[in-house]
Amino acid sequence: MAKREASGARRIGTSETDRLLVSVAAGSQDAFSRLYDAAAGPIYGIACRVLQDPAHAEEVTQEVMLEVWQSAPRYRPESGHAMTWMLTIAHHRAVDSVRTLQRSAERERAVSQHESTTAFDDVVDAVEALGECEQVRSCLKDLKPELRQPVVLAYYEGLTHTEIASRLSLPLGTVKSRLRRALTRLRNCLGAPP
């Protein structure tokens, strides 16, 4: 849409564009219409170069022109030309759109990977996991309380080694060595290779 409309637009000078944008800031719809005709083509061009997709470039052009209408009062002619200001907005908007599209594609890839790696038989997996949990609980009960406590705090309550040391009023080194001994005994109890 922006490309077709802009192809028939007449070229106007930078000072005229600056004046139009100041008029747009004052609320002139006629000035916005003329500014749109002058700026939509170059904005579309930048968006198309960044996005490499004409349909997305048209969307970005429309978004930029809406933003120009809404934020025209913030434009200061002494800071630079109106066209430069609008093209900067267009470039930022197009780059943001590329990033959004990339994040969306990454999410879709992650979801499809997750879906393709789901278990073959959820019921069997659940039963096996339950059996493993029971075995772990049984092995935990066999540990001495001084070895069981750090394991429970670390793996069931999610505490760090430092937090465990604080909770049990033990030196950090003692907590680490108890955890190491407990995990070795659990591994042996569960029949895991060393």
Protein model, in words:
This protein has 194 residues and is mainly α. It has helices at 2-7, 14-25, 29-51, 54-71, 82-116, 122-142, 145-156, 161-168, 172-190. The protein contains nine helices and no strands. The longest helix is centred in the middle third of the chain and has 35 residues, at 82-116. It is elongated. The protein starts with a helix and ends with a helix.
First-last Cα distance: 67 Å
At the first level of CATH, what is the class of the largest domain? Mainly Alpha
Computed structural class: mainly alpha
Quote the CATH topology of the largest domain.
Rna Polymerase Sigma Factor, Chain: A
Radius of gyration: 32 Å
Shape: elongated
Number of domains: 2
What share of the residues does DSSP label as strand, in percent?
under 5%
Number of helices: 9
Give me the oligomer status: single chain
| Helical residues, percent | over 70%
What is the fourth-level CATH superfamily of the largest domain? RNA polymerase sigma factor, region 2, helix turn helix motif
CATH architecture of the largest domain: Orthogonal Bundle
- Helix-strand pattern, N to C? HHHHHHHHH
GO molecular function, one term: sigma factor activity
GO biological process, one term: DNA-templated transcription initiation
InterPro entries: RNA_pol_sigma-70-like (IPR039425), RNA_pol_sigma-70_dom (IPR014284), RNA_pol_sigma70_r2 (IPR007627), RNA_pol_sigma70_r4_t2 (IPR013249), RNA_pol_sigma_r2 (IPR013325), RNA_pol_sigma_r3/r4-like (IPR013324), WH-like_DNA-bd_sf (IPR036388)
Domain RNA polymerase sigma-70 region: 35-103
